[in-house]
Design goal:
The complex is a heterodimer. By secondary structure, chain A is mainly beta. Chain A has no helices and 11 strands. In chain A, a hairpin with a 7-residue loop joins β9 and β10. The termini of chain A are far apart. Chain B is mainly beta. Chain B contains no helices and 12 strands. Chain B is globular. The chains are: A mainly beta, B mainly beta.
């Protein structure tokens, strides 16, 4: 089925460990996004990529890096995980501002 | 910068009753507005969107929303709530090629 695929779905890290969250879309969308969701705070934008080859910071970029590997894939890396990065991470993609975003099912990350 | 306020953290309604979820936005230009729904453990699903034209927009699952520029509001409504509507609802405004979300409203449906 067409959509946004995120891996892994669940992950537990120790403080200081690194990991990469993977995201791929098969809808030929130009724009891709990474959000984190925390209780009572809605979704906050970490990084986004308006098109292949470009990335920009969102509202909460500290502690994260991203790579737009190609048009399909947009990865999020935590270089040195901290407990404050415990959250649910969502990847999304968009064809244009007129259509809204298509979201993946999320990655639940716990940093202990 | 754009922002969204959803004043109600939790709302409980009886099955069959009507529903209105409030959303107020702040944006300097004509807003692109969205409502999303999130079931537990799931991603977000688009319910409806507003860009221009008719200020009353229809969405999926029997939801509608009305854009009121004078009140900077985009409230979500449903005439008769079903138990399956229990979920978290997010209002969002688009600006600068990115969506900004409100904090969400958790809807509980009692039978």
């Amino acid at each position: 089925n067409a959509g946004v695929t995120q891996t892994p779905k669940f992950q537990v890290l120790k403080t200081g460990q690194s990991m990469t969250l993977q995201c791929a879309q098969d809808m030929n969308h130009n724009s891709m996004y990474w959000y984190r969701q925390d209780p009572g705070m809605g979704l906050r934008l970490i990084y986004y990529s308006a098109s292949e080859g470009t990335t920009d910071k969102g509202e909460v970029p500290n502690g994260y890096n991203v790579s737009r590997l190609n048009k399909r894939e947009f990865s999020l890396r935590l270089e040195s995980a901290a407990p404050s990065q415990t959250s649910v991470y969502f990847c999304a993609s968009s064809e244009s501002r007129l259509y809204g975003y298509t979201f993946g099912s999320g990655t639940r990350l716990t940093v202990v | 910068a754009q922002s969204v306020t959803q004043p109600d953290i939790h709302i409980t309604v009886s099955e069959g009753a009507s529903l209105e979820l409030r959303c107020n936005y702040s944006y300097g230009a004509t807003p692109y507005l969205f409502w999303y729904v999130q079931s537990p453990g799931q991603g977000l699903q688009l319910l409806l969107k507003y860009f221009s034209g008719d200020t009353l927009v229809q969405g999926i699952k029997g939801f509608e929303a009305e854009f009121k520029r004078s009140q900077s509001s985009f409230n979500l409504r449903k005439p008769s709530v079903h138990w399956s509507d229990a979920a978290e609802y997010f209002c969002a405004v688009e600006g600068g090629n990115k969506l900004v979300f409100g904090a969400g409203t958790i809807l509980r449906v009692k039978s």
